[in-house]
C-alpha cells in the first residue's frame, strides 16, 4: 500500500475561503521584502513557511550584535554578514524548495522600479522615509500592492497601500529629522514579531487573493496594553471630503522605524 506524502500546508489548505486555490496561488506568487530587519525577518519566516513560491530579499545592511533581540533570522555567528545572505541561509532550512533571491542593494528612487518589477506583492519593512517613499512611488507606478508596517518603542502600525489607498496620503512629504529608529531608537523585540506577523498576513492575502486587506485602514497597537485600534485613512486632496483621515498625532505615531 502506497502512502501519500505528508502535506505541510494541510491546515492552511483547510481554511474556509483559502483552500487549494489559495495555496496554489501562493506557490506561484513572487513577493519582494524590502528591509530584512526587525519586521522583515518574521515576515520572511512566515511567508517561507506558508509556501510562497519566490521571495526576493532586498537590503544592503550587515548583521550587528544589537539586531539580535528582534531580528530572529540571525544569530551571533551571523554578525558582520550581509543580512540577506544570513537570512537566506536560515530560510533554506525552513523551505528547501523555495526560490530565494538575495539582493545586497539599498533601494532608492533611482532603482526601486527595477528591483520591484515582476512581483505580485511587496512588503515594506524599511526604516527611513526616503526608502518608504521610493517603495510606495515605484509600487504605485507598477500597480503592485504594498504591505507596510513600522515599529518604535512600544508602538506598531500596519496597513496596505493599494489602489486609492496610498502612502503619500498618510505621509505627503518626508518628515523632518532622522527617522532611522534602528540606528539608536528603543524598540520591543516581541513587538517586531507581532507587527511583522500582521504584515505577513496582509502579504499572504494579497498573494493568494483570499480575505480582505487593510487597505484604507491603519491598524495601530500599543504593546503596553496589548490593544489594537483602527484609523480610517482617506485620500488627500478633494477626495478627503468623503471620509476621515488620520490626524496629525496618529501620523506622527506612524512615523516609526524597525
List its traits.
single chain, 258 residues, alpha/beta, Rossmann fold, 8-stranded mixed sheet, 8 strands, globular
Account of the protein in words:
This protein is an alpha/beta fold and 258 residues long. The chain has a single domain (19-254), classed as 3-Layer(aba) Sandwich (Rossmann fold). It is built from 9 helices and 8 strands. The chain has an 8-stranded mixed sheet, with helices on both faces. It is globular, with a radius of gyration of 18 Å.
Please give the share of residues in helix: 25-40%
CATH homologous superfamily identity: NAD(P)-binding Rossmann-like Domain
Q: How do the strands line up in the largest sheet?
A: 3-2-1-4-5-6-7-8
CATH topology: Rossmann fold
Low-confidence runs: 177-183, 237-246
CATH class: Alpha Beta
- In the CATH hierarchy, what is the architecture at level 2? 3-Layer(aba) Sandwich
Apparent shape: globular
Compose a concise summary of this entry:
33% of the residues lie in helices and 17% in strands. The chain is an alpha/beta fold and 258 residues long. Strand 4, helix 6 (129-142) and strand 5 (146-152) form a beta-alpha-beta unit.
Chart the SSEs and their pairings.
Layout: H1 10-13, H2 19-27, E1 30-34, H3 40-50, E2 54-58, H4 83-94, E3 99-103, H5 112-116, E4 121-124, H6 129-142, E5 146-152, E6 155-161, H7 167-170, H8 189-208, E7 217-222, E8 227-232, H9 248-254
Parallel strand pairs: 1-2, 1-4, 2-3, 4-5
Antiparallel strand pairs: 5-6, 6-7, 7-8
Amino acid at each position: 500500500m502506497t502512502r501519500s506524502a505528508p502535506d505541510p500546508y494541510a491546515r492552511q489548505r483547510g481554511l474556509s475561503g483559502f483552500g487549494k486555490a489559495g495555496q496554489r496561488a501562493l506557490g506561484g506568487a513572487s513577493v519582494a521584502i524590502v528591509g530584512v530587519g526587525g519586521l522583515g525577518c518574521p515576515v520572511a519566516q512566515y511567508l517561507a513557511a506558508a509556501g510562497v513560491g519566490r521571495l526576493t530579499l532586498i537590503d544592503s545592511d550587515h548583521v550587528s550584535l544589537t539586531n539580535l533581540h528582534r531580528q530572529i533570522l540571525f544569530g551571533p555567528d551571523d554578525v558582520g554578514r550581509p543580512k540577506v545572505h544570513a537570512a537566506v541561509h536560515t530560510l533554506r532550512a525552513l523551505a528547501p524548495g523555495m526560490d530565494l533571491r538575495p539582493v545586497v542593494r539599498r533601494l532608492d528612487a533611482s532603482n526601486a522600479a527595477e528591483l520591484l518589477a515582476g512581483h505580485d506583492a511587496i512588503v515594506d519593512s524599511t526604516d527611513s522615509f526616503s526608502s518608504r517613499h521610493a517603495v510606495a512611488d515605484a509600487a504605485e507606478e507598477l500597480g503592485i500592492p504594498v504591505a507596510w508596517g513600522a515599529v518604535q518603542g512600544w508602538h506598531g502600525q500596519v496597513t496596505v497601500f493599494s489602489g486609492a489607498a496610498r502612502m503619500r496620503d498618510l505621509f505627503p512629504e518626508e518628515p523632518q529629522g532622522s527617522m532611522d529608529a534602528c540606528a539608536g531608537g528603543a524598540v520591543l523585540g516581541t513587538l517586531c514579531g507581532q507587527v511583522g506577523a500582521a504584515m505577513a498576513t496582509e502579504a499572504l492575502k494579497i498573494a493568494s487573493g483570499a480575505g480582505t486587506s487593510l487597505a484604507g485602514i491603519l491598524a495601530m497597537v500599543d504593546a503596553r496594553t496589548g490593544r489594537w485600534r483602527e484609523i480610517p485613512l482617506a485620500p488627500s486632496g478633494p477626495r478627503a471630503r468623503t471620509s476621515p483621515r488620520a490626524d496629525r498625532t496618529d501620523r506622527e505615531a506612524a512615523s516609526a522605524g524597525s
